[in-house]
Amino acid sequence: MILAQAAREVGGNVLGRDPGELVAVESLSNQVFLGAEIVVKLAEHPRLDREIALAAELPAGLSPALLGEGFYGEFRYACYERAPGAAPGAGLPGADAATARSLAEQAVRRLDLLHSWTPSKDAEEILRQPLDHGGFVSRVDLIDLVERLAVADHEAVVRRTLLAGLHRIAADTPAYAQADVPVHADCFWDNWLADNGKLTALLDFEWARFGDPLDDYFFLIALSGEHDLTVLNAVAQETGTPPDVLRAACETRSASYLASDILLALTRTDVRADLLARRLNSLEEVVVGRRWQRS
């Protein structure tokens, strides 16, 4: 109730009038309230600062306009113009193959606006600020992550077969990841809006950084549910990237994100209890099911 009232006051101050009904929507990192004209985000962590600082710099037409930002008590807030549509959703639930392919093609074209963007000096400084993002950085870092996971796993929660698979993947990765273009780094399908099959906006730039376009293509492909092969082929065609290169990049990044999340779940008490089980299931698919080697 307190957060809802805060969102209404923020929205009213930004618009200069009653913002109308604001409905709380599910979000992993912020308190988000959706109105007919605006979206209000409230946060207690500094990542929203990153998004706010980049908002005015991003290529036109990529993300909704920032209408206002500031502080409301202990909360950092950002108020955005509401873009039309709704999120396709992680796994693209209810989408047929043709829709999944079309959304993937549109997403690649929109991401190209970001990947080809030349940031200002201020924006570049923000994008180069270090983030513990859990993504792939280098072979040495990934091997070290897997070894730290093995040491932290005192109760042998992670089967030895899975650890061996992580070691195998890590040993086959490139020496370093590229880090020379702006990437969103969290562009799974919950962070897009679509209206009647047309993508209208990319949201949530809290993890934006310099990276490799493959960092973004991974999220499109890996979180497309039953349509992952369709999306992979669409990305391959749109970008001119060989499918085998995309498969290898997805396997590398899957290993990195999964190992990072599993290590967090084993070493921190503030991590959601169900995270470990879900990440272990995903790791089983990657290592035992050879997800990224299947045709």
Number-wise, the strands total: 9
Mean pLDDT: 95
* CATH fourth-tier homologous superfamily of the largest domain: Aminoglycoside phosphotransferase (APH), C-terminal lobe
Number of domains: 2
List the helices and strands and how they pair.
Elements lengths: L1 H14 L7 E3 L5 E4 L3 E6 L3 H9 L10 E7 L2 E7 L15 H19 L5 H7 L11 H14 L7 H12 L9 E3 L8 E4 L2 E5 L6 E3 L1 H10 L5 H12 L3 H25 L7 H13 L8
Antiparallel strand pairs: 1-2, 2-3, 3-5, 4-5, 6-9, 7-8
Helix pairs in contact: 3-7, 3-8, 5-6, 5-9, 7-8, 7-9, 9-10
Can you walk me through this structure?
The chain is of the alpha+beta class and 295 residues long. The chain folds into two domains: 2-81, 2-Layer Sandwich (Phosphorylase Kinase, domain 1); 97-293, Aminoglycoside phosphotransferase (APH), C-terminal lobe (Aminoglycoside 3'-phosphotransferase, Chain: A, domain 2, Alpha-Beta Complex), CATH 3.90.1200.10. It has ten helices and nine strands. The chain has helices at 2-15, 47-55, 97-115, 121-127, 139-152, 160-171, 213-222, 228-239, 243-267, 275-287; strands at 23-25, 31-34, 38-43, 66-72, 75-81, 181-183, 192-195, 198-202, 209-211. A five-stranded antiparallel beta sheet has the order 1-2-3-5-4, with helices on both faces. It has a two-stranded antiparallel ribbon with strand order 6-9. A hairpin with a 2-residue loop joins strand 7 (192-195) and strand 8 (198-202). Helix 3 packs antiparallel against helix 7 and helix 9 (243-267) packs antiparallel against helix 10 (275-287). The longest helix has 25 residues, at 243-267.
